[in-house]
Amino acid sequence: MLEELARQIAENGVKHVFGIPGSGTSLTVIDSLMQKDVRFHLTHFEGSAAIMAGVVGRLSGKAGVSIGIKGPGLYNAVAGMGECLLDAHPMVSVSEAYGPDVPFWKAHKRMDHAALVSGVSKGRFCLGDELSFDAISRFAEAEVPGPVQLDLAACAEGESVCPGRQETASSLSAKALDMVAAAAHPIVIAGSWADRKGLSSLLNGLRIPVFTTAAAKGVVDETLPQAAGVYTGAGQELAPEGTILEQADLVIGLGLRHNEILGVGPFNCDCVLFDEADESVWIGISPDEFGGWDESLGKELAARLSDREWGLGLVESLNARLRDHLLAQGYLPARVFASAENFLGGELRVVLDTGLFCVVGEHLCRVKSSELYVASGQARSMGVGLPQAVAASLYDPAVPTMLFTGDGGLGMYAAEIKMAVKEALPLVVVLMSDGMLGTLRPRAEKDSLSLAPLTLADPSWVGVMEGFGVRSVSARNEGELEKALSGWDRKGPLFLETFFDPAAYRDMVGGVR
Q1: Could you report the per-residue pLDDT of 206-216, keeping only the tens digit for each?
Q2: Element holding 131 (H helix, E strand)
Q3: Does one domain contain both 145 and 180?
Q4: Same domain for 399 and 364
Q5: Closest Cα to residue 343, out of 493, 486, 496?
Q6: Which residues of the chain have pLDDT under 50?
Q7: Rounded distance, CA 183 to CA 178, Å?
Q8: Which of 5, 243, 302, 457 pairs with 427 at a CA distance of 20 to 30 A?
Q9: Is there a single domain that holds both residue 350 and residue 472?
Q10: d(CA 36, CA 353)
């Protein structure tokens, strides 16, 4: 049965498996997978394995796979599974487990797996005679994508079997289509579902302002004139979203969900019309439970927008205003993002961890496709950027990957950089440091709270990274940063840390978010 599982995983197109094996069934499965040319990557933490599997799943469109032991192996993996759940990354967590026939007194590492993963997965399944890994994988990939748990033990009586992927029909009401056709100033806000449904061609062909959520960044080519940037629902006066929405007479939410934005709006609907207080109109074209969508719907929508052209000059001027504002503030993250773009060019995969620098990066880093951008866009989970970047670079080493992380994010998964060293991955890790947890500083100062819990005794990681075998540079200005980037040969990871004035760092996003 274990051999059959390995065969099905390999035949399902899985090329990389991540995790930490035990001495039981997990080791057997891993050995069988390796005999079938599926690469196993030993991580330092099971949570990293789940995150890495999820990123491979997101980039490939096929569920990634992590593997570990029962009990502590699985509860360590839960951290990564939660990230995959919130960010809609499809993956299968495979774990050793006790079967229903094992007596209760064999309690070593025994836990209730069903209860453990109930809040961080789409479902849990067991190894059985009717096992189909393809069905499990498709269940993980189905809307909304996410993690599922597979126990390497038989199911107890009455436990459900894995359902196949289901699709339902979608339609656009005649009234909604008529409103699209009648609108003089329509705009689109696309969520990650639009990316999973392959709607980039539709969006790239429009001549009206197109926003994306942070989770969908790249679904429209951001070098095109209609690309208005990231919509958060919390943008301030310098963010393009406010000005453009004021001039729109129709907002088309294309696969737009509440959990992908920071503000509240009428987003998760299926062609329900909302009359807002300012008399703008929203049409939500969003996934139902299983994400029904077909090519004809896209053609209908595109046909009604094909002769519409407006707002392109406005998009250009607003994006330029924001860029100029951020770059004029001196040596801060905006200058770092600009240097990366200048020295590494457009063929660069950007990975953003979470922090104040992320607010800047979401606006300044312009990517041509969603394959060139990875982030915790929905979860906003600090620290997952490093395993995400390593996995993305491992999955597609042809494109250099650059991770931008902050003081709070580097340490959680730091040991996984050793995988980048082992594989000689073309990965640059940039630490943006103000010496503290900068996103929390405004609240502490506003309420006269102590900054001590937010302040790092020593923010530098150069010594640690050099110990891992990573070429490391501490850059204190643009010249030192550009010198390090220009000297990188792309034949292994590079670590750069750069430091900013804490007060200027705190204030840099004023007027943006």
Answers
A1: 999 999 999 99
A2: none
A3: no
A4: yes
A5: 486
A6: 164-170, 266-280, 287-291
A7: 9
A8: 457
A9: yes
A10: 34
